[in-house]
Amino acid sequence: MDLGDFKGENMGANNPRISGFVITYNSGEILRTCLRSLRFVDELIVIDKSSTDKTPSVAAAYADKVISVPWSPLPTETRFVAYDACSHDFILYLDHDECLSVEGIHWVRENAGSHPAGVFRFPKREYILGRHDEDAYYWPSYNIRAFRRGSAEFVSTLHEEVGRIKGDVHDVPYDGGACIHNLSHRDTYQWIEKTNRYTNVQDRVSFFDTSKPLEIFAQERIEFWLAQSRSRSDYVVSAALLRAVYDIVDRVKLWEAQDGLDGNRAFAAVCAELEATYDIADRAKLWEAQGGPDGKAVFAAVRAELKASDDALRPGRRRVDMEISPRGQRSSLKAAMKRISLRIRGKKR
Q1: Closest CA to 93 of 78, 106, 71, 103
Q2: How far, in Å, CA of 93 to CA of 111, rounded?
């Protein structure tokens, strides 16, 4: 029997109609399981972010409505599209790597109409590195996955997702089996990939004290997540360390932004320096062939001039130097090369 067979049956007092949605991109077989767990809702919507695999056909087989939108790296903005597509006032949603347990389905069916709260947080059973362990730091953790229209709104800030909460928030008890199974990270590679993608978002929630030295911060985050764990098995420690890595990367990227680092401009400046030395190297070979000064002397003069005239990567002067365009910096270096050429030929500068 498919869970969709339960559509329209009694779901508690007032029989509220439920809209459910999932945002997806190249989700593979997980999406089928995810959508089956939501087939009991009155309206199931899939927002597909231009998948290139079989995701659209899987979505079409289970959803009442499939909406295709351009790809984007995160689901935050796409939730507004999904929200606007929902016809009913009780909204239940999952990420494409989440599945609602049978007990969770029963809880929603029994409480959607009668529960006094307006916003509902579900316990989440994380599967990190393919496994779930109740001794790990993440159990039990909670996420909002349902609310009544008017009790909350989606927001664009990463890691907040639901804001402007007006109704009471209820945590669904985790000891009754009602939960979200989150098949979030198959392996370390996927954890690092998601870490990099999520921490690149400027509008994200970060509660870190950016004045704390980075070394101390990193040590404290490792200790914090280990302290949330209830064993020291290799798996539990690995999960805690990965969670600390996320925080550390997030904090380092905040430092990058505050410090004004611009790797593209810095690399362009380095390339300008190198190309100037290549120019003088070509000239030096020509001078040697004409009986001119020794090549070593030329390069000694070049390096001395570069050291004196270009400090683009020196920490104390980085921001000032970054205001000079790579083209302007190369022009300046070429002028320096010309001065060196004149000087070692015995002419005036």
Answers
A1: 78
A2: 16
pLDDT tens for residues 278-300? Answer: 877 776 665 565 555 566 666 66
Q: Cα(71)–Cα(50) distance, rounded to whole angstroms?
A: 6
The residue type at 104? G
CB atoms closer than 10 angstroms to residue 31:
27
Q: Assign 54 to helix, strand or coil.
A: coil
Lowest mean pLDDT segment, chosen from 36-50, 118-132, 212-226, 295-309:
295-309
SS3 content of the chain, % helix, strand, coil (to 5): 45, 20, 35
- 254 token code pair: 């905040």
Q: Are the C-beta atoms of 47 and 85 separated by less than 8 Å?
A: yes
- Indicate the residue type of 309: S
- Tell me which amino acid residue 67 is: I
The identity of residue 172, as a single letter, is V
